[in-house]
Amino acid sequence: MKEDKDMAKLVWDKVGERLYETGVSKGVVYEQAADGSYSKGEAWNGLTAVNESPSGGEPTPLYANNHKYLELMSDEDFGFTVEAYTYPDAFAKCNGESDLAPGVSVTQQERKPFGFTYQSIIGNDTTGRSHGYKIHLVYGCKAKPSERNHNTVNNDPEAETMSWECSTTPIDVPGMTNPCAHIVVDSTKVTSAQLTALEAKLYGSENGEPTLPLPEELATIFNGNG
């Protein structure tokens, strides 16, 4: 008789479980208000890449009695770089621009903090790129000045690509030990009602303008609309 423990045997690369991630789309930038809330979301057209670059989380060993005693871990920091052909008007202040007059922008001004969301695709071996997607929510963002090159038009035309290296300041999340700046929602693991409620917030609806909900509101959405 086969033992019950055989029922728990691991299987690799089962049909439907060969997952991968690709793409970036539906970028939105949100103005951050003085009270820390985010509103007035605006679509980011021409988005070509979002490169995540977390840092920190490095161990520092401590020694005692001639042996390794323990390790202390440094705090983690979430950074990212946005690449695009253009940027929305709402991002101008985040890019250090202020209007002197309609159509006249002054650069090198204070860079306003912002919130940012984008989607990446989840694919698998049976349904391809229609399997699902992840919604990335990023809080407390600030964009750093970056290089931009203007080149002459020639026989090999190309559009200028702009990029911004961004840092973040983490915020408290209910039920979590540490604050964070990056939250990911997997469409394949939440209910359709929860996903609809979140997207109505992020992208706007007939009932309200697009906003970036804080973690407290996210907890309400995903613990109350199951």
UniProtKB/TrEMBL annotation:
Q: What is this protein called?
A: Phage major tail protein, phi13 family
Q: Which organism is it from?
A: Marvinbryantia formatexigens DSM 14469
